[in-house]
Specification:
Elements lengths: L1 E3 L9 H5 L5 E4 L2 E4 L9 H5 L5 E3 L16 E4 L2 E2 L2 E2 L1 H17 L3 E7 L6 H6 L4 E6 L8 H15 L3 E5 L2 H13 L4 E5 L1 E5 L4 E8 L4 E5 L7 E5 L16 E5 L30 E5 L9 H10 L3 E4 L1 H5 L20 E5 L5 H4 L7 E6 L12 E4 L2 H15 L2
Parallel strand pairs: 5-8, 5-10, 8-9, 9-16, 10-15, 11-15, 17-18, 17-19, 19-20, 20-21
Antiparallel strand pairs: 1-4, 2-3, 6-7, 12-13, 13-14
Helix pairs in contact: 5-6, 7-10
This protein binds flavin-adenine dinucleotide.
């Protein structure tokens, strides 16, 4: 709740002016808060010249003493028994953060018969691995994974927890944040440390991708963030690196859950996986008709690549939403990205700007995609694509 320190408040009214919700007013020279209207946005706290306002938590376990929370954790993710690449990306990034904070980096590895991946986590930077293995963890059940992680956090008190913004991470990491009564910034694209107060600076696109917001969680611990796969680079493993593996048996009560997994079916995808493809040929609205998608598919097949799409193409029903690249689709970082009739809206660019080489085909010289493209082809995509396909075939004999 928002508290007013009556000894510090001078009744200047700055807070009243700053409040967009009319939740605070000055009466008898002191600020008075209406808790039913206050949204805890913090605008008044930032404005108060006397430092008389403070937002504090009622439940406050995490608020009690921030200095009790130390260490950086990465929640490793396994697909079957193998680590998901995002875990290695996170470890690489987290190693740098932990070094800045002069603290240990821990990987949490949950699953069944996944222990053989512990050394890999250490080679990518973990100082220790908390290994939680149990047959009940063979199938992913968010309730169970969430309860176990929250239990570990309560015991060990890490100051930072990072996880992948994958289907798995997105489903249970918010649950953990809720159980721990702390904040979570989802889908971060950048992470940094403010050394003076050990705050994690969590940057992510906001307001439809039109600006980048840097978010902090100043009064609660742990500071939790999820990061999209392929946004951060994977480091080089140090195969001789030593670390500690601590095996933990989960308590029976943490394994209880209300759902039952009947069967797991692997999705049959057409062509290479979009997020792992080295070459992506992307269809934009500039293709003008669904039939012209065949040209994009043909080029993608010739280059051994995957077909991507903008949201405009997905919304038109030309391809399924699994092909969508961007803010509300997947993030990709291929070696080669070819945009065919793609304008380069910010919501698309945030999902593909990590590509090593970007080629844009567009008939509008002012299209924003040309601002980030390494090679631009100005022309009608329906004319350029057949020429390109023909040339590649000819070169290959
Ligand atoms: C909250 C939010 C989230 C979003 N998330 C995403 C997302 O995840 N991914 C995404 O892609 N979009 C997303 N969008 C939509 C995004 O803003 C754009 O509308 C979309 O990316 C545009 O797709 P496009 O480039 O295919 O189409 P357009 O913007 O219509 O561009 C078509 C381009 O093709 C060119 N062109 C036309 N005809 C030809 C031709 N014959 N030959 C060559 N060039 C031609 C035009 O000059 C133009 O530049 C989101 C929007 C919002 C508000």
């Amino acid at each position: 709740m928002l508290r007013v320190d009556r000894k510090k408040c001078v009744g200047c009214g700055e807070c009243e002016e700053a409040c967009a919700f009319e939740a605070i007013c000055v009466k008898d020279n002191v600020a008075v808060v209406d808790p039913n209207v206050c949204t805890l946005c913090g605008a008044c706290v930032d404005t108060c010249p006397e430092g008389a306002l403070e937002i504090s938590s009622n439940s406050g376990e995490a608020d009690a003493d921030l200095d009790l929370w130390r260490g950086v954790w990465v929640v490793a993710e396994c697909r079957g028994r193998a680590l998901a690449p995002v875990s290695l990306e996170l470890l690489t990034q987290a190693r740098g953060l932990a070094d800045r904070l002069d603290t240990a980096l821990t990987a949490v590895l949950m699953g069944y018969e996944v222990g053989s991946e512990s050394q890999r986590l250490i080679s990518y930077g973990a100082d220790r691995v908390l290994l939680v293995e149990h047959p009940e963890l063979a199938a992913f059940i968010e309730e169970v994974y969430g309860n176990i992680l929250a239990d570990l956090v309560r015991k060990e008190r890490p100051e930072i927890i990072l996880a992948g913004a994958t289907a798995m991470g997105r489903s249970y990491i918010p649950r953990v944040a809720t159980l721990l009564e702390t904040g979570l910034t989802a889908d971060c694209t950048g992470l940094d440390i403010r050394e003076e107060d050990r705050a994690l600076l969590q940057t992510r696109p906001a307001f439809g991708g039109n600006l980048l917001a840097t978010i902090v969680c100043p009064r609660h611990r742990p500071q939790m963030a999820t990061v999209r796969p392929h946004v951060m680079k994977v480091g080089v493993p140090d195969l001789g690196r030593k670390g500690e593996v601590i095996s933990i048996s989960p308590k029976e009560e943490l394994l209880k859950h209300r759902s039952r997994v009947l069967e797991s079916v692997k999705e049959q995808a057409e062509g290479p996986n979009l997020t792992e493809a080295k070459v992506i040929v992307t269809a934009g609205r500039g293709l003008e008709a669904k039939e012209n998608l065949a040209l994009v598919r043909e080029l993608a097949d010739l280059l051994g690549g995957a077909l991507g799409a903008t949201r405009a193409v997905v919304d038109a029903g030309w391809v399924s939403d699994r092909s969508q690249i961007g803010q509300t689709g997947v993030t990709v970082s291929p070696k080669l990205y070819i945009g065919c009739g793609v304008s380069g809206a910010i919501q698309h660019i945030v999902g593909m700007q990590g590509a090593e080489i970007i080629v844009a085909i567009n008939r509008d010289a002012e299209a924003p995609i040309f601002n980030i493209a390494h090679y631009g082809v100005l022309g009608d995509v329906k004319e350029i694509l057949p020429l390109l396909i023909q040339r590649i075939k000819k070169e290959r004999g």
